[in-house]
């Protein structure tokens, strides 16, 4: 997923222009892995923003549990690095529009977005609409490793 986010250059330019960043994403990670990494990671002073995109691999769990762990990770970064901006990305759509996982991820996204709206210093980024067709089906080519033509 993070690899294909590179196709959204405008997102990186809007939020992270002239900033160094570290990609700590690992395929297959669950929120627990990201939380461990957040607790043990030491960021250079040159890193000015934290961008969190995790939770899709937890979609078998209860959505409020997933949202709470994502929010906890964000709060941890905000406390540990009080001078950094913290961005939380909504989970990207997967499966069919009415699948249990899609319904769960939309619930997660709603709660993470509400948290950001109600707490200064946290910024919600929703890229999900770009990853779906108007009928809610997935734009399969974006999820493909052959997405270099986007």
SSE layout:
Layout: H1 2-5, H2 9-16, H3 31-40, E1 49-52, H4 63-80, E2 85-89, H5 100-118, E3 122-125, H6 140-143
Helix pairs in contact: 3-4, 4-5
Task: Write up what this structure looks like.
Helix 4 packs parallel to helix 5 (100-118). Helix 4 links the parallel strand 1 (49-52) and strand 2. The protein is mainly alpha-helical. 42% of the residues lie in helices and 9% in strands. The relative contact order is 0.15. The protein has helices spanning 2-5, 9-16, 31-40, 63-80, 100-118, 140-143; strands at 49-52, 85-89, 122-125.
Strand content: 5-15%
- Which whole number gives the mean pLDDT? 84
Low-confidence spans: pLDDT under 50, at least 5 residues?
none
User: Count of helices?
Assistant: 6
Helix content: 40-55%
Question: What is the β-strand count?
Answer: 3
Q: In angstroms, what is the radius of gyration?
A: 15 Å
Q: Please give the alpha-carbon distance between the first and last residues.
A: 14 Å
Strand order of the largest sheet: 1-2-3
Helices and strands, in order, run as HHHEHEHEH
Shape: globular
Largest sheet: 3 strands, parallel
Multimeric status of the protein: single chain
- Class by helix and strand content? mainly alpha
